[in-house]
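Example (one chain per record):
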Amino acid sequence: MAEVGRTAVCDPGALLPGGFWEAVGVWLERPQVANKRLCGARLEARRSAVLPRAEAGGPRTSAGPQLGTAGRVPEESRGRRAAATAPLLAGAPGQPGKAGVEEGDVPASELDSLWSDFSRSLCGNREMLAFLAGSRAGSRPEAQHELDVVLRTVILKSSPHRPLLAPTREMVVQDVLNGTVTFLPLEDDDEGNLKVKMSNVYQIQLSRCREEWFISVLIFCPERWHPDGIAYPKLTWLGEELLTKLARWSVESGKSGFKSTLSLISVLKYSRAYWALKEKYKDMVKVWPEVTDPEKFVYEDVAIATYLLILWEEERAERGVTAKQSFVDLGCGNGLLVHILSSEGHPGRGIDIRRRKIWDMYGPQTRLEEGAITPNDKTLFPDVDWLIGNHSDELTPWIPVIAARSSYNCRFFVLPCCFFDFVGKYQRRQSGKTQYREYLDFITEVGSTCGFHVEEDCLRIPSTKRVCLVGKSRTYPPSRELSLDEQRTQYINSRRGCPLGPAGREPAPASPQAAASSAHHPGGHGALHGAAGHTPEARASELWLPGFQPREKAQRTRNCAALPRDFVDQVVLQVAHLLLGGKQLTGSSPSGTLKTWNRGESLSLAEVASELDRETLQRLKRECGGLQTLLRNNHQVFEVLDGRVHIRDWREQKPPKKKQPEAKRKLVPEAFKTRVCWFFMHHPDGCALPSLCCPFAHGPGELRPSLTARTEERVS
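Predicted structure:
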């Protein structure tokens, strides 16, 4: 036995030992957060057991808690057991929302046989018995107490270079009383039965000495440690990287409040499908015509599509059907998610207010429609299995409602991003939660009110907003549809104080039957507003909640770039005048020197704003970012740091890095002298830099045509 790492843990909040068991739970269920080469883990079975006595002639095990007086857990340790058991129970077979038995799984009943064989072998292996019992001072290996034994499958991350990596199985022995967790690798014997192998056995241990806590990583037999770089990393990684993460997780305040990633589907199936789809659609990155980052959007949509494909595959298995689910993606954006799902055999389409350039690249098999979605009796999809809302903004809270009213069999998947209520922006109501957590709870409440069993999951996508909500089934029978729809109507009206109808009655709810008949085209094609025969007045009267406004078709540029040039120049002169102490900005003095050049003063954004007239401020307020954005756009003149505005001193600008990309090295000289120097034209002391050093032209005579202008000339 050898200790490969040990770290002291500062615990000012008295979070230990409970925090230690939460950290162990993370390493058990989500090992990929520490080791990026792992895709995840599956806890297949759990049982309680006891170690055999060292002097006993045979093993003593139990299928459940059988504790005598000597092995009774002390009162102060019961909290540790509760904390330790919770994450393990989350992976128990048969729990709702968890992946069931997959190909290659070991039945839970075999864990009993596996433990019996192993505990029998411990009678002749005192070293392993002592290792399992814990080696710190005060431990009593001979005293029997309850253990938690878990059968775990570690799923390795596949890739085009390693597509067929088999999962690794382990038996994890958790000793709450002694504060140890031992990981025992499993292998098949000659007869195909699982057994414990004595190589690559390690233990995580929590100990306390003189009021100080320590976490250690120990190896049972260092000479038998054979790292493979994936499931079994080098000992230095265990003793440094893993130990550091465990210590940090142990004292982090509270839980994240979010589910572990991919908790509703099979991680193994997801891993295999993701790499296959990523390889299949990776060329989209090379031809991406949009201004958005291709790698982020392509691989994010590949991950979302993979999740839905596995979710739907498992749903078909549960329902005993073979036909692939149909779908409609509301607010489909670039349409890549629709393209992937359609290419994989699912009939569906996407709808968005604005057409994208990339739509023309997908081909006729990908159905994408340009149109506005407004929540009303005509925006229903009675023949569709799933409604998708992937960053659907103002439609997000309406998607569960539309799904519920489309048909009893319609389900939904939403991935909330921006925070919208039924009408307008979502207003926070609970200071004790983050805005993101509160908004997710709101969408869950909407789905539950609409009659769905709403489940939450966390996707593996390159985004900070990666929690999805899934409504796969209803909480009520079809016969209660009318009463549930009344409940939906009351809830929607309560969110914004919708006025009541005549004689104090609420507007009549839209029944599913009326909704189905109003969707005159199969598949809900007639659900889009903006079609012939629907005036704005008629559309407003049909809205489920007056005041809803779909996003504008033409995206407004709201970064101050669209403001008139003369207005921007006027604001720039006003702010510079303030910073330079009221000096007149009428012309330049070419004799500006390092000693006399006026750098001006520093003012806060609030101080600058207070000196501008109300009309100017109102005009800036209508632009995203307002005054600060305008000043930063004019970075030749101003520098905005920590909320304070300064005149930029070009003498202090750092020279560009020597090792720049080749494209940038070529473009930098081409960009010189294409604009007149503001300081040369307006600063009382002129420009602080000589003409040869200034990247801007000191007078019209130095101006050079811009690269953009020359490119346009060549094209024409």
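Caption: The first strand starts at residue 2 and ends at 9.
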